[in-house]
Amino acid sequence: MKKIFSYFMLPVLLIVASCDDFGDINVNPNASTTPLTSALLTNAQSTLGGSTTGGANFTAGLYAQYFSLTQYTEASLYATQNVDWGAEYAGSMYDLKNIININSDPATADVAALQGSNNNQIAIARILLAYRFSILTDRYGDIPYFEALQGNAQPTVDSQESIYTDLFKELKEAVAQFDNAGNVKGDIVYGGDNTKWKRFANSLRMILALRISEVNATLGKAQFLEALAADGGPFASNIDNATLVYPGGNFRNIWFGIGADQGVSDVIANAVNSTADPRRAAFGKPAGSALVGVPYGLKREDAIAWTAANPTWSLILNDGFRSEASTLFILTYADALLARAQAAYYGWTAENYVTLYNDALRASQQQWGVYDATTFASYIGGTAVALAGGGAAADDAKIATQRWLTFYPNGPQGWSEWRRTGFPVLTPTAEAINQSKQIPIRFPYPTVEYTFNGTKLQTAVTRMGGDLDGTHVWWDVD
What we know:
Elements: H1 2-8, H2 37-46, H3 56-63, E1 67-69, H4 86-90, H5 92-104, H6 109-112, H7 118-140, E2 143-144, E3 157-158, H8 160-177, H9 194-211, H10 217-229, E4 242-245, E5 262-264, H11 266-273, H12 280-283, E6 284-285, H13 300-309, E7 315-316, E8 327-331, H14 333-346, H15 353-367, H16 373-380, H17 393-407, H18 411-421, H19 447-464
Antiparallel strand pairs: 1-5, 2-3, 4-8, 6-7
Helix pairs in contact: 2-5, 3-18, 5-7, 7-8, 7-9, 8-9, 9-10, 9-14, 14-15, 14-17, 17-18
């Protein structure tokens, strides 16, 4: 029964008070036996940021060396993280699958259409499922995909290669599925704006295309070019940024209240302090003009002693982005521009990668509310930041490093880009307690999966060459 729960649990609809950004998702149980798709969508979107209380997304940020722990430091010493995926499959991902099912079934499609066009609801759900599955497969490698969310208690664990191929298909087909039959209700990301959803899908597709550049550059380039030219194109400005604007109260920004045992790492602090990056004013709560990063990967007693001696150490994000009603960035215009810059550097497009790179860093500073034209000119001209152009070897590392910085504090994306490119050069903690003593490049499978789906899981383990935190996922070939 527990295994069936993990893959098939009917979602619990949230019953909350009405609020401006998260909508009215009160449900009258006597009105219909069909779940309210607008409520399912709101529920699924409300969890896009993940959790900062020991969740997998935060741990990925530890591996990307975005953050440091100041008290209970085992995760930053690479202790094995037994992160179960059942809540993700059974929660928001099942909500999204349910939206697709309800809008596709002739018996329920008419009722569902009261919440917006059937096609548009399905398209949004497919895009969000692609996003969620991309995070999950990048975390573990091979995962249940084609038979997941279908009530199968022992789904096949599919290869990451086949999953990526299908993610590209899903994103492409979803963009083509939108119609002009009205906005979708319950959409707290884009308010049912079809064009912005197309741009999100195309931008995500470009990012995923680059992710496979080392293992299948031919497919990556083809997918990137298709996404760049697809209907709606990629993000065109910061107005297109995918964000969650939290209303506060029962729905608080995930960084709200974080502080006592989670800080900005000295790795990020040194990166932005050394170049006088204006984003440091947003990335953490600084002491004066610079961030005070907590040394990365300290043992508990050393971390406690260091923070006691350095009480002005920087919290993660400044007050404007860590209040209960702050905005959280999911995917941004700057992310898309840097992806285009990297693709142009690789020779996938004829775009000017220097121009795209400069535009991306300007957009990122504007996104964080720290842009000043004079300051930016000085920053972009600094030797550690400026690109030489002409395909210079050093430009590759600078573009990759800026992608790592611009994704901050999105742990899964930053960790994935570091794994793929190796930039910036990150040093594992000297206090590592895992077997390899290296930064983890994968999450081991949840131990409960061996009990309930061991045979199919073992097939995946054999295919991948192991189930360790040092086992490479498909696209990570180095």
